[in-house]
Amino acid sequence: MGERTDTEKGAPVSPAFSSWSDFFAMGGYAFFVWLAVAMTVAPLALLALHTVLQRRAILRGVAQQRAREARMRAAQAQQEAA
């Protein structure tokens, strides 16, 4: 098993970043990289939130419609019984 190697060249594979601070610094391009990440993740998070809220609203509307129809049927049955 041993050391990981590049499959094409057989050379040892080195990590892209030597520390977490190097990772977050992104080679001096941290502002642009993390801005791009934020501009990608934020709309996806907003889309997920919107989907959840929209689903709740639709289910609430369906429940209200069913309750309304049940009240109408009950009123109609009461009216026919009278």
UniProtKB/TrEMBL annotation:
GO BP terms in the entry: cytochrome c biosynthetic process; cytochrome complex assembly; heme transport
The keyword Transport belongs to this UniProt entry's keyword annotation: yes
Pfam families: CcmD (PF04995)
Organism superkingdom: Bacteria
Localization, UniProt: Cell inner membrane
Annotated InterPro entries: Haem_export_protD_CcmD (IPR007078), Heme_exporter_D (IPR052075)
GO cellular component: plasma membrane
Membrane topology, record value: Single-pass membrane protein
Keywords tagged on the record: Cell inner membrane, Cell membrane, Cytochrome c-type biogenesis, Membrane, Transmembrane, Transmembrane helix, Transport
Membrane-spanning parts: 23-49
PANTHER family: HEME EXPORTER PROTEIN D
Family as reported in the entry's similarity comment: Belongs to the CcmD/CycX/HelD family.
Role summary: Required for the export of heme to the periplasm for the biogenesis of c-type cytochromes.
Protein name: Heme exporter protein D
UniProt source species: Salmonella enterica subsp. enterica serovar 4,[5],12:i:-
Gene behind the chain: ccmD
